[in-house]
Amino acid sequence: MSITEPGTRTSESSVPRTSTAPIFVVGCQRSGTTMLRLILDSHSRISCGPETRFLEDMERIVGSDWKRLSQYGFSQEEWLRRIADFFGGIQSDYAAGRGKQRWADKSPRYAMKLDFIVRLFPDAQIVHVIRDGRDVAVSHRKRFGYWSCVKSSVKWPRYIAEARAGGAALPVHQYHELRYEALVTDQEATLRGLMDFLGEEWEPGMLDFESHAHDVPARYHVQATSRRAGEGTEAAVYSSRVGTYRKELDPFMRLLFQLTARRTLRELGYQ
After folding, report:
1. What Pfam families is this protein classified in (predicted)?
2. Cα 208 to Cα 181: distance, rounded to the nearest angstrom
3. Nearest CA to 88 among 74, 102, 76, 77?
4. pLDDT in tens, 116-175
5. Which element (helix H / strand E) includes 248?
6. Distance CA 246, CA 35 (A)
7. Angle of helix 133-144 relative to helix 251-267, nearest 10 degrees?
8. Distance between CA atoms of 148 and 237, rounded to whole angstroms?
9. What's the rounded Cα separation, in Å, for the pair 212 and 183?
10. CB neighbours (10 Å) of residue 53?
11. What residues does 28 pair with on adjacent strands?
């Protein structure tokens, strides 16, 4: 294993080029997970549909609700198998219906449940998208309001810590950290590295992901168009939002982030 930047592990992928292992894209909300979802969904072999959140609720079966549900007499392994069969079956059928051979799921909240995800799908590959938490806070404010921005100062380091702890327990070929900043400034090189991790062939068409058909709500296109207009660009991927906190994060939020997330920012190399 080698380190190319803080928190990033690289190695030759041991995943075969014909892999059907499920892919889970996780990360704190407003970190670029939706953009990566659409990029992956543009690959000829990979289907990455709408966010599910389904498995977050299912975790309670073998967690907080287990004492009660164990009375049915089925083992945890049997519950897990049936959940995986159902969820994996839906995803596989959805992928096949779109002419794809492999499915991916983008659900940011699964960052907090990686141990459960891997219990369900032992061969799953996890892609953890990481973005500077201060830029995440700015995005929260723009999308959800100021109180959401305030809460992100606690949520962001918690998501990072949980996902990295879960990733540290996995083999290197099952956990990959992808920086938002690298994705928007050097898209092709970053995606080539991701494809190598996933054991998939690089496809240039992924760079033009907005020309592909995706199952997204109508509001996505409205919001995406509005964001591009605000940035003065027509490009689907742009780097102008990197470091936006320097101009758009107020003094109170800057101080709050220093109090709640200073260690995480330092560990990730965000100065």
Report:
1. Sulfotransfer_3 (PF13469)
2. 18
3. 102
4. 999 999 999 999 999 999 999 999 999 999 999 999 999 999 999 999 999 999 999 999
5. helix 245-248
6. 23
7. 140
8. 25
9. 19
10. 12
11. none
